[in-house]
Amino acid sequence: MKISIPSIFSIRNEEQFNETALAIFKHQAANCEPYQQFINHLNIDSAGINEVDKIPYLPISFFKTHRIVSNTDTEEIIFSSSGTTGMVQSRHFVTDLKVYDDSFNLAFEHFYGKIEDTCLLALLPSYLERDGSSLIYMVDALLKQSKHPDSGYFLHNHEELYHKLMALKKAGQKTILIGVTYALLDFLEKHQLNFPELIVMETGGMKGKRKEMVREELHQVLKSGFGVDAIHSEYGMTELLSQAYSLGEGVFDCPNWMKIVLRDTNDPLTLLNSHQTGGINVIDLANINSCSFIATQDLGRLLPGGSFEVLGRFDNADIRGCNLLVQ
Which of 32, 73, 146, 316 could form an S-S bond across to 95 if both were Cys, CB 3.0 to 4.6 Å? Predict the structure, then answer.
């Protein structure tokens, strides 16, 4: 079965999403061997599944132990997760990078407008200091598309970043600062700003550099330090080729080809309704060449309209490199 990739990014309603999701499920159940074995182990007949709510979700840990692909193409890149020494990394074998390119470009433009009009500053030291980061691949691409001469990366040169931010404020330039949480806090220990128009996006995670903070406390510190009304966040991970974004208050929205479903924490095959707390399952149709139905180790709550909150992690789950904060 050949799935039409352009149809993923032209989805406009739930009917189209469900129809495409079912087609991708049939394809992956037949062609992704680890997923096929998982479904068989559950004694589920994939041919009999004709509703999205019946689709089983592959535990995200399979990306640590198996090559999750649903075609015979050679991978163009392998994205890998960050982690502490000795921790097994997740690996995502990406056989068609254009799908990832289209996914993050279309989603970013949907939430933030054209990157060409934006100055993008990236404070991502821990990501830059390792190989295989899907976030760095995305930011690299966005930086190349930005037409602003000041767009770029910053490691630990906080003084330069401060003066650049002050100049951008004075010029009235639309600016996005994307940073790993601990690096943003390190910056604010020496510099305080009042830049209300600045978009500050934290990618989550202290990387073992600082004590974890609850989201409300962290965002209050960041809002006060940068002089902004809201802190934006990105919900993404190595195992996904799509990202959800929060424009404030920790409430995330997905692009049209991505959906969050909650599962019962005691019965992973049972799905939950809105306003309940459960394990986060992700349908990411951009994962067309791997597996689009992933059971993460995150806990969350669904809100009306498909928005969601991330509330923390399951006990004993590895700390994910791009994880959000425990509340």
Answer: 73
Distance CA 196, CA 199 (A): 8
* C-beta of residue 143 within 8 angstroms of C-beta of residue 151: yes
By CB atoms closer than 10 A (0-12, 13-18, 19+), residue 54 is middle
Give residue for tokens 């330039």.
173
DSSP 158: H
In the DSSP assignment, the letter for residue 163 is: H
The residues, any chain, with a CB within 8 Å of residue 91's CB and separated by 6 or more, are 63, 64, 67, 78, 79, 80, 81, 132, 238
How far apart are alpha carbons 160 and 40 in whole angstroms? Answer: 56
Half-sphere exposure of 202 (CA within 13 A, CB side): 26
Reported in sequence order, the residue ranges of the chain that DSSP labels E, i.e. its strands, are 58-59, 77-80, 91-94, 119-123, 152-154, 175-179, 199-202, 232-235, 244-246, 252-253, 258-263, 277-284, 293-302, 308-313
Q: Residues 125-154: pLDDT tens digits?
A: 877 777 899 999 999 999 999 989 999 999
Contact, 137 vs 167, CB < 8 A? no
Stated pTM of the model: 0.92
Task: Please tell me the distance from the alpha carbon of residue 17 to that of residue 8, in angstroms, as a whole number.
Answer: 8
Strands 77-80 and 91-94: antiparallel
Look up residue 57 and give its DSSP letter. Answer: -
Of all helices (H) and strands (E), which one includes residue 144? helix 134-145
Query: Which two three-digit tokens encode residue 164?
Result: 């650049």
DSSP annotation of 159: H
